[in-house]
Design brief:
- The structure holds two protein chains of two kinds.
- By secondary structure, chain A is of the alpha/beta class.
- Chain A has ten helices and eleven strands.
- Chain A is elongated, with a radius of gyration of 23 Å.
- Chain B is mainly alpha-helical.
- Chain B has one domain: Orthogonal Bundle (MetI-like fold).
- Chain B has eleven helices and two strands.
- Chain B is globular and about 70 Å long.
- The two termini of chain B are about 40 Å apart.
- The chains are: A alpha/beta, B mainly alpha.
- The interface between A and B is medium-sized, with 31 and 31 residues.
Chain lengths: ~270, ~300
Amino acid sequence: MKKRIAGFVTLSAAVLFTGACGEQGADETVEITVVGSTTVQPLAECLGEAWEAIDPGVLITVSGGGSSVGVNSASEQTADIGMASREIKDSEIQNCPEIVVHTIARDGIAIVVHPDLAVDGITMEQARKIFAGEITDWSEAGGTPGTIFVVVREEGSGTRAAFEEIVMEDDIIIDSAILQPSNGAVRTSVASTPGSIAFISFGYLDSTTKPVAVNGALPTTENVNSGAYPIVRPLNMVTFGEPEGAVADWLEFIKGEDGQAVVAAEGYLPL
Amino acid sequence: MTFGTKRDCTQKIMRTVLLVSALTSVLIVVLIFVFTAGRAAPAFHEIGIWKMVSDTTWRPGSGEFGILAMIAGSGIVTLGAVLLGVPLALGSAVFLAEIAPEWIAGAVRPSIELLAGIPSVVYGLFGMAVIVPMVRTIPAPGNAGYGVLSASVVLAVMILPTVTSISELAIRSVPAGYREGSLALGATKWETVRRVLIPAAKPGIVSAVILGLGRALGETVAMIMVIGNSAILPAASTGNPLSIFLSRARTLTGNIAVEISYATGVHESALFATGVVLFVLIMLINSSAALLLKKGVR
């Protein structure tokens, strides 16, 4: 028994010691911590890998948390870079005037409906009224009679915040809407609920739901580039003060030709 | 003599080790409560405890943090689960304890216990894919399938193993004399079960139901997937009061799980406050179960 305990202690010590050694050996690496929006997160990870391949002396760690967490982390300097999938709010700039916003890509927000629904397009006005609960039946929005089921994201989601800012104006999204905590779950709900409507990021569009045209423009890259599609948000990175050193190099790479190629390859819209 | 001291010494050491283990669990509970309450304090301070638990509007974006809708949501879902699940569990318990021959009970019992081992996310998937579409076919205005009924059905299945096994134990622990006496007086088996065994096992059965209640109140992932998560007070959509079960709702647990990853400031603190309310509710429920169990097992 005693021998076993002694063995265990030795082993633990060995593990701890090796761990400490590992860290000491890596002290030439510059680490960049990136925190925030889960919409920007996968893109930031790809951009990070691409940059690490070019500059092996940099280690980029990306973690989620949401847009508000991203902006806060940059303001409080708990991360080198904060990610936000929406415009930075006035209150956030007032709270910390030093923050600098770098737009790295754009993302469209599509309005999708259940695939069996005979509605091909709505206006921004109709979208606002549907999500506010003023229009509750498809017969009032160019379809055959049937209840409209609104599916939305939770408070704090960057996609929801951007949608509210661009589409809802001063109206509030109806409280009785079905709420799902991620783009994927929203898509699943819409695909399985007849008469449902929701907003999701362009990156989540697939054949299980039907995208509708907004003000006559379908949610496509071409329509965003031509300015015809109205619901587009910036994907931002936020730093405390002007970036320096490794952070500045990486941001420059992202905004340059190679970085923007990664943006396009990942299904987001380049600047 | 030396042998004796060594034995005494081991006794003392093991006593301390066991005491420390027991105290650790207590300490963990206390620490969890203290830290949760600590993080909730700013919300309680800024919004006020009473305002939080009595206000039905939850809109963190506009600074409204009422959790009454979620308290009601958790309450009605749990009520539904108990109404659906307890009769079923009680039936299984009586069957297993009194009627089934040992070889059948030996086959049925593990499969009921297996229900307890299925991860809740799997229940959620099942609910989303099977229960929600079934509930959707009920004709009522605004019924999307997601709502209290779907959640209650899923929860009813989830509390089955807890309620069944504790009730079975309670029925089995009724002294054999009661059973034999009743049968000897000419009562049928059913009369014996209804008039003698269930009344005698009542404290155990009630505590089984209360433990099931606690389990139902704490369930999270499966609820998020089927209840619709709308922060509204559940309400009947037609003249029939039962249509309240078709309303969408949000549970206390769901409120925390859905929003915590994106919350900051008062919003985050308000979610911790939701946790404190849930903690207190579950503590009340569990201690009443413990009290009843103590009364029941003599």
